[in-house]
Amino acid sequence: MFKKMEKDSFYYGFPVVLMTTKDTENNKDNITVISSTWTLGKSIVIGLGLANKGYLNLQVGSEATFNVADATIWENIERIAKTTGNFNLPDFKKQVGYEYCTDKFSLGGFTKMAGKEVQSVRIQECPIQIETSITELSIRSDFAIIECEIKGIFVDEKILYDDSHIDVNNWSPLIYKFREYTTANQSLGTNFRFQEFKD
Questions:
Q1: Is the separation of the CB atoms in 146 and 134 below 8 Å?
Q2: Disulfide engineering: 67 pairs with which of 91, 123, 125, 138, CB 3.0-4.6 Å?
Q3: Per-residue pLDDT reduced to its tens digit, 83-108
């Protein structure tokens, strides 16, 4: 038997990504924790709330780096989860306990690395770092769908099998499943299009 559910928002989960952007007003680096992302070819598409400082830093032509988290840093991420770089805190964020934070890197214990192809910084603690430029913004009622062109992919050698393949045995992405931190640590099999390395 199946029962119809009624929910205001149905979020079933995605990998956790730390998006870094430059503040357009003071050139400071900002971290935005996101998980609504998908990739296809040389593009990344994300969903982002309009009151989010990360969104406010973006426009077509701007740059963002998507630092893909692994399971080891979930507590660091949770430390910055209720913070925003937006000084003008919207009421709905105040009501759920968000606070303004001028330096999420220090609060979360994250280390900046200079961008290679873009100006936005990379986060050393994230094993996969994807540098992009923003190509399209589509505004909805209270969020935006943002398309990004991949400019560079940087991967920690500890999870590489060779120069162009990930060793999936050494990669444990952090998954935000129904707002619970978890990881993909059990293999059920591989799709016929699997291209990485697995022993």
A1: yes
A2: 123
A3: 988 888 888 888 888 899 999 999 99
